[in-house]
Amino acid sequence: MPVRNLRRFQRGFTLIEGILAIVIMAIAMVTLVSFLFPQAEQSAVPQYQARAAAIGQGALNEILARKFDEHSDPFNDSVIRCGESGYTCSEPDALGRDTGESNGTELNVAAADDVDDFIGCWGSAAQCGGSSLSRRGALQDLVIVSAAEVSDYRHIWLEVRVGYEKEDLSGAASGVTAQKRIEVLVKTTRYGDYAFMALRSNY
Q1: Residue-averaged pLDDT of the chain
Q2: Are 77 and 19 within one domain?
Q3: How many domains does the structure of the chain reveal?
Q4: What does the H/E/C string look like for the chain?
């Protein structure tokens, strides 16, 4: 075979071919980074939604197991409600934990006896640092979880707000009513916030 033909078959990429290959690879990488990789992160969203639902329901169950108000049922298992028989309900600005229900700045959940005792942020000190509510304890103090689940929930915390609801259930009331709205906001690091709400009647 002539030398000229041998050189023609051994030739590599030209400069233009090399540049075109780099451009094509760059376009492919931009496509992967822009569309494919974010989808991998979003695959964790359903898992966090399921966890948030379980935690929100668990927190509401714990709170709703308590009585309507600190001044309800003064003799335990009686039929007296606050607002009748001379027992006044707590004023809206007096809602929150009561004397003897705290361990320092945290709420003693076992001593909490009415729904508004739980008002506050439930999570680590760092998580509650940016909250407008005071920290009342760790998440596992409010929602019973196993030792294995504690590590799974380290990126989740919640805020509890309780206030009187208007009689027609149309929004927050400025005075004492027969309904309290309990709002639980489950917060995650970057997978969204999930709100849960329940009403507790004065019975």
Answers
A1: 84
A2: no
A3: 2
A4: CCHHHHHHHCCCCCHHHHHHHHHHHHHHHHHHHHHHHHHHHHCCHHHHHHHHHHHHHHHHHHHHCCECCCCCCCCCCCCCCCCECCECCCCHHHCCCCCCCEECCEECHHHCCEHHHHCEEECCHHHHCCCCCCEEECHHHHCCCCHHHHHHCCCEEEEEEEEEECCCCCCECCCCCCEEEEEEEEEECCCCEEEEEEEEECC
**Which amino acid, one-letter code, is at 29?**
M
Q: Are residues 160 and 76 in the same domain?
A: yes
* pTM greater than the 0.85 cutoff: no
For 139-173, the pLDDT digits (tens) are 888 887 655 566 667 788 999 999 999 998 888 99
- Same domain assignment for residues 150 and 170: yes
Say whether both 36 and 64 belong to one domain. Answer: no
Would you state the structure tokens that stand for residue 93, as one six-digit string? 């600005």
Domain residues for the domain of 14 are 3-42
Question: Quick one: CA torsion of 170, 172, 173, 176, rounded to 10 degrees?
Answer: 110
Judgement on whether residues 161 and 182 belong to the same structural domain of the protein: yes
